[in-house]
Amino acid sequence: MPRRLICLALAVAVVAPAAQLTAPRIAYADSDPATRAAKRHNERAEKLFALGKFQDALGEYQEAYDAKPLPGLLFNIGQCYRNLGEYDQAIFSFQKYLKLKPDAENREQVEEYISDLEREKDKDNSARLDLIKKQKKDEPPPPVNEGKPVYKKWWFWTAVGVVAVGGGIGIYAATRTDGPPPTDLGNTEFGK
């Protein structure tokens, strides 16, 4: 029996220091501040994205990427830009994602996103150009809405009246010297 205790004590004496040597490395890997910050921002971004708050999610994804530049975050940034209708930024983010991760599993989907975004961008640009051409050829520029001068509008004179009444009441209250106002409790005068 004592022999078993000695063996057990010897095993503990050998195994315990070995476990202590490996434990700090594991804890160090989990305590990397950049990784923790990136995870925290990514989790916030995921929640915001799920709620359709793409602008806020974009900011959080960018913070996560600043903390730890992982290619997957570029894909998420591209998705935010795509949902916001900012085609150039979305295309840039997706292309950078594919450049940093050429063997991405979703490569075909991302390439499809890029071509769809380029078509949308071209369509948007051509619609803008058509509108500009029509405006130049067909009609003169729209007239500036001059309307009535400000002093002939009802709201101007209403504002002037309110200011005048308020000023009159203020001057009256400031210059009144009757003494303290009467109360139901009576007035107490000190010093007489």
Brief overview:
With 192 residues, the chain is an all-alpha fold.
Number of strands: 0
What is the string of helix and strand elements? Answer: HHHHHHH
Structural class: mainly alpha
Strand-residue proportion: under 5%
* Assembly state: single chain
Number of helices: 7
In helices, the fraction of residues equals over 70%
Largest sheet: none
Mass-distribution shape? flat
Commentary on this structure:
Helix 2 (33-50) packs antiparallel against helix 3 and helix 5 (87-100) runs antiparallel to helix 6 (107-138). This protein is mainly alpha-helical and 192 residues long. Helices cover 74% and strands 0% of the residues. The termini are far apart. Residues 7-28 have low confidence and may be disordered.
